[in-house]
Amino acid sequence: MLIPSIDLKSNRIVQLVQGEKLALESHDVDGWIARFRGFPAVQLIDLDAAMATGNNDALVRYVAARLPCRVGGGVRTAARARELVDAGATHVIVGSSLYRGGRAGDPQDQYINVPFAQELVREVGQSRLIGAVDSKAGQVVIHGWKTSLPITAVDAVRTLEPYCDEFLYTHVDREGLLQGTDLPAILAVARATSRRLIAAGGITTQDEIDELDRHGVDAVVGMAIYTGLLRVNVPATE
Fold first, then answer.
1. Domain spans of the chain, in order of start
2. Which of the chain's termini has less CB crowding within 10 Å, N or C?
3. Exposed (0-12), middle (13-18) or buried (19+): which is 57, by Cβ within 10 Å?
4. Which residues are known catalytic residues?
């Protein structure tokens, strides 16, 4: 399944290369809502909230009221997760707060914030929780992909599996580059968990989306849609 992505920054829709360089921006929120209407899921990320530079709460509520949105960005408390559900999010995507720093020699699972995962489950339910696993150079990265942890995406999903019904795996090395994604890396993560996997990071072609779908993996696409490189059609309803 194709999941279109909407990233928000300063009350506009944006696309960033490698999470830093602004490549595209649009103020035509209603136009993109109309284009994505009919998709069973849309990914909505508040980049300002993720970067702790503000938020786009009003716009999140506006979009989530019109599209079935999985919302993420800056979910640092269970109360914030509840706010997003109350704002209309079908699911909440949680990333950096599911991890914590450790010390050299610590077991790998010590880098996972299990108590927070448990708190999120109590607040919004496991069925609404999507654990974000961002990977760069083979290691999980957090804090806007600035901090690297000595664990792999496979390690992370195995530890978080009891708390998340789905995982969002982003292959940061390819993010925003329009050069295709890393299918073997994605499939390695898919094999490590019984939960549904959503993949992101450089997915550019319909062939990639179809191949992922054959393996039961959903595909989040942003840059390729906004540049027109990938033309999307609203899925047919039965």
1. 2-226
2. C
3. middle
4. 7, 134
